[in-house]
Amino acid sequence: MKWQSWAEFWAMGGYALYVWGSVGVTFIALVIEVWAARAARQSTLAQLNAQHLVTNLSHEDVAE
């Protein structure tokens, strides 16, 4: 498909709402996915650190 002007490109042959709406929804979904993955990683690291501390404390109590 060839466009004669930028206005025609942005209008997408009359389908601009569907095209740009889909692009927008996809972008938002990707941002949410990255945010959720980072939050899950931070949560997992916090749980592992807490578990490591508990394990080390229980081993120190046994050693005494």
List keywords for this structure.
single chain, mainly alpha, 64 residues, 0% strand, 2 helices
Please describe what this structure looks like.
The protein is mostly helical and 64 residues long. The protein has a domain at 25-64. Helix content is 84%, strand content 0%. It has helices at 6-11, 16-63. It is rod-shaped, with a radius of gyration of 26 Å. The N and C termini lie far apart (78 Å). 0% of the residues are buried.
Topology:
Blueprint: H1 6-11, H2 16-63
Order of helices and strands: HH
Stretches with pLDDT under 50, minimum 5 residues: none
Average per-residue pLDDT, rounded, comes to 89
Radius of gyration from the alpha-carbon trace, in angstroms: 26 Å
* Biggest β-sheet strands, sense, barrel: none
Q: Approximately what portion of the residues adopt beta-strand conformation?
A: under 5%
Distance between the termini: 78 Å
The percent of residues in helical segments reads: over 70%
| Count of DSSP strands | 0
- Count up the helices: 2
Specify the structural class. Answer: mainly alpha
| Spatial shape | rod-shaped
